[in-house]
Specification:
mainly beta, 1 helix, four-stranded antiparallel beta sheet, 9 strands, Secreted protein, Immunoglobulin-like
Amino acid sequence: MTITSAERNRAGCLTVSGDLKNDGASTAVVPAELRGNELDVLRTDPSLGGATVVDFAQRKRYYVLRDTDGRPLTTTGLSTLKVGESVHVFMQFPAPPTSTTTVGFQLPLFDTANIKISG
């Protein structure tokens, strides 16, 4: 996964966007672990609902926002990626304070990535 942007908006949300690509030699099944293990999220389509953003300076972790039905505000319907296939993805979080410009992005099965917030 390649993060392409992390933008804070005036509504108080942080949207992290990127591309999930299969660089392997065969079709890849998108792991179920990426959706996380919260009961509401487990009832939804495959997603990136397990992603979190960590503000290390404030010692706070932010989880993917949910709509009123408990569905994560993130790309859903991910199941498989063919060889070389790439899909644009997004995840929306509560925004950290404006004084926070760098956060850790965490997605199950991936290493933590430090990303800069714009906006």
